[in-house]
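Example record for the data management plan.
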Amino acid sequence: MEQTRKLLESPIREGWFQEFHYELILTNGDPLSPQVKEDIVQRIAHRKREGGMPCFRTTTEESTRQNIESGIVNAYLFIENKDKTDRASCSIQIHNYCGLPGNKNKVWVFDLCRTYDKGKKGLISPTRVLFDWVQQYTWTETKQRSIYLMVDNTVKQEHDILVGVYQGYGFRVMQHEECSKQLKRTIMVRTRRVQGGTIRGGRKHMKKRKTYKKMKTMKKSHP
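Corresponding structural encoding:
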């Protein structure tokens, strides 16, 4: 719990990681200002994939507000390339779903979506950078080497496609039938080895452009 508490009490983070700009907004500490809360709602609820389709049919302004108000989401993370044309974002939850091995709160990635300007899809995926950032930050702050996500298994075709995509980013399916049945989700985990204090595949240092304890518009501030 002490390691988890340290992660949650970290200051606002904004800077550069693997040539991508990142912004982490903590949502379960001091209350967010209405302006910052609404900014998160608009950025998350109105993301669109290639072809103009919403990232998630069930992610709306109202559902995003509810997630912030309920405290279920610990942070939102936004990753963007230096040209501001290709980006990925997610919510982060720190929770012990189903009492997975180790019986500790774990770092979960939810609401993941990549968006990019027409004809501006980058060669380096911001999704991969996002996973690397979460993995490195999780290790730095909690000394845990694994991050987790869930894939809805109610629609087999969509499920199988997403599982294949996440396997391409280094995730593997956890064989936890009871938990998967309970949540109607497939649990996936990505674990990395540590070399010299760095998660393999990441970088030793996240170059910070700004680190605040407070901003004018908010008291706390992904993924």
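Summary line stored alongside the record: The helical segments are 2-8, 34-45, 61-70, 126-142, 156-168, 177-183.
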